[in-house]
Write a structure and sequence with these properties.
By secondary structure, the protein is an alpha+beta fold. It contains twelve helices and 13 strands. Helices cover about 40% and strands about 20% of the residues. The structure holds nicotinamide-adenine-dinucleotide.
Length: about 350
Amino acid sequence: MASYVHIPALELQGFVTRIFLAAGCTEAEAGRISHHLVGANLAGHDSHGVVRVPRYVEWHRAGHIVGGRKAEVVTDGGGFLLLDGGYGWGQVVAEQATRLAIARARQLGACVMGLRNSAHLGRVGDYAEMAAAEGLISIHFVNVGGSVLVAPFGGAERRFSTAPFSVGVPLPGGPVVLDFATSLVAEGKVLVASNGGKALPEGALVSPDGTLSADPRTLYGDYAPVGPRNPENGLGAIRAFGEHKGSGLAFMCELLAGCLTGSPTSGPVEARGRVVNGMLSIHLSPKHFGDEAAFHAAAQSYVDWVKTCRPVHPDEPVLAPGEMESRRRAERLVSGVPLPEEAWANIRATAAALGVEAP
Ligand code: NAD
C-alpha cells in the first residue's frame, strides 16, 4: 500500500507557483497553472493535478511548451472562432480562448470555438465549469496530437490519443459536468498508479499480443520508483472505453478537435515528442434558446428524479455527473490534497533542481 502525505491546498498551490516561477513562467502563467493543477487534485482527478509538475517543467525546458504565448484569433466569424495557442501553456491559452467564446455566446446565444496548438490544457471539466459559472451549457471535444497511446476497439496497437470529452450544464443547485478521457483510464491514471497511487482496473491496458493487463509497465516499460515515465519506452496500449462506442467517440474527437481545427492528431504524420491539445467547444446560452427559468426547473427536476434511483449498493447512491468532483472538493479543502510519497518526492526533486524549497 502506498503511503500518502496530505498538503493543504493553498500551501501546495503556493509551492507549485514558486516552481513554475523558478522555471521561467510569468506570475500570471505560474498562478494560473498552479490554480488549475491543484483544482484538478481538489476535484479528485489526481492524474491531472500536481503529479504533472515534473513533466511540465521538463516540457518547458525542452521547448515543447512556449512561455509568454497568448491565444491568437485566426478566424473570427462572430458565432464561430478559430484560435491558435502557439504551443503556449495550455491552462493559459485554453482559458483565454474559453473566456472569448463565453463572451460571444452570452452576446449571440451560441459560439463554436476551435483552439489549435495548445500545450496540455489539463482537466477539461475546468473549462466546462468556467462556462457553467457564466450560465452557459458547453460541449468540448479534445484531442492530443503527438500522443498515440490508445488501441481502438478490436485493436492491439496504439492509434488514438486519450482524447477527452466534456459537457457542462449550469443549474441553480450546481452544474452537471461530465468529463472523461475516451480511454478506459486517462494516461495520468497510469502515471498515478506507477507512482504508487491507485491501482488500475483489470484490463485497462493491452499488450502487443492482445493480452489484457493492469501493470503500468505495459505502457511505460521498466522504470525506477522515482524518476520520469515515458510511454515511448513501453510496447502496449491503453484500451478505449465502452467497446466500439467509446472507441467511436475517440475517433470523432480526433476528427473534430484535431483535423477540423488544424491541430495535430495522433496520426502517423504528426511530430512526436510535443504533446499538443486541440479543442472544439460549443457554448450555448439557455437564455437565448427560450425560457431559462423553465429550462433550469425541468433539468433540476430531471436530475433529482434520476438520483432517486434505488442504488445497487445501499451505501453508494446514484450520482449526477460532476457530483463526485464536488464531494471530493469539499473533503479535500478540509483534509488537504493527498499525494502518494513517490509523487511528492518527484515534485520535491523538480523543485530542488530549480532551487525552490518545499513546504
Ligand atoms: P473518470 O473515469 O474519473 O470519469 C469522470 C467522470 O465520471 C466525471 O464526469 C464524473 O463526475 C463521473 N463519475 C465518476 N464517478 C461517478 C459515479 N459514481 N456516478 C456517476 N458519475 C460518476 O475520468 P477520466 O477518464 O479518468 O478522466 C480524468 C480527467 O482527465 C478528466 O478531467 C479529463 O478531462 C482529463 N484528461 C485530459 C486530457 C488532456 O489531454 N488534456 C486527456 C485525457 C484526460
